[in-house]
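chain below, 438 aa
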Amino acid sequence: MRKFMEKSGILVWVLVAIVLALVLGSLRIGDQHIIPETLGRFFSTFSAIFSQFLGFSIPLIIIGLVTPAIADLGKGAGKWLGITAAIAYGSTLFAGFLTYLACATIFPHVLGSSLADAKEPGSALASYFVVQMPPVMDVMTALLLSFIIGIGLSFVPRGVLRKGVIELRAIITRLIEKVIVPLLPLHIFGIFLNFTYTGEAWGIMRNMLSVVVIVLILELVILLTQYFVAGAIARKNPFTSLLTMLPAYFTALGTSSSAATIPVTLRQARKLGVSQPVASFTIPLCATIHLAGSTSKIFAFAFAIVYTHGMTITAAQWVGFVFMLGITMVAAPGVPGGAIMASTGLLASMLGFDESAVALMIATYIALDSFGTATNVTGDAAISLVVDKLAGGHLGSEADPENARELAFDGMAYLDKVSVEGVVTPEERAQSALTSQV
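prediction:
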């Protein structure tokens, strides 16, 4: 059992945390909770401290991920890179706005009344103390700084600053992998335990189950639309094309990783008739920049939380959120929960989510992470069909498959060449010493 939990990844741990919190927080002996309030406040204290750390980390995550992502897109300057990126971004925007239309139409009829009015039976689990961790800058400042530096670096092929942001990305990715993601289940346990004490938990879960069904249907609609459009352009049967891509879809369900699914996606795209040069260029690139399924999922759960908590978000705010979410998804790292971590800053700054709403978003997103990834990678082949038709199967020298592959695998080749002691090798130091003696 222990080995299974170690290999199962973040999804199982998050689900276990939610179930344990719901069960243990609901059980009572007489009038007392089976988990004493003193113990419950310990978990609440951890969640409060972790939330402060998460708030501190969000601007750093934005700068560390968005800046090199924008710089790397510019690095492969060429007509077909721009066309592929534009199609991928358009597909992501379509998914976001389709989800917006569906949520605004359906959610008022299927979701319960506002959870903001839920009564609190007994005391909520107040934390024993909170350690304030103010971020170095606010979220919008971090976004603007990332865009400015990233666009500037796209014009600089080499340099110290470019290497610096690549190293910063490595640090932030490790922060997410080794610290934030492993601690998320305990944080989510504390949040949901508090929900059971306040009486909100079961209402939230009922509403979220309704959202899950709607999201899965929406992702099927998104895939059908992508393949109908691609089929019309490339003159391919959309249903046959979708059936051909099923191995990639199910592989992504198992791995929850677009990068890990690239070999299967590439093989199936070739079976669709996409030429080798086009497939080798578009599939690795779209694994990084095309996240239509993830965008739809994040937007749907964000809309559900806004609606059930009685928050007021204007249509203009939602439109801006979709555009910014599409850009931010490009920077999402290839780790479990990476997409939602990259978007937490937008949830807080543009939608006003507090720590409990962000934790609920993280929990629901991770619970369905593999379905969003499967939608992403399956849609990548549809983009390949379109580009292959537009390019006539030949991209020429403007599109370098190696560059696209570097983008898809997070552009860390530079770090592999850096020695343990730094960028200056022992041989270089010895040569420098000899030169100084002359």
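The longest strand covers residues 28-29. Residues 113-123, 398-414, 418-423 have pLDDT under 50 and may be disordered.
thats it, cya
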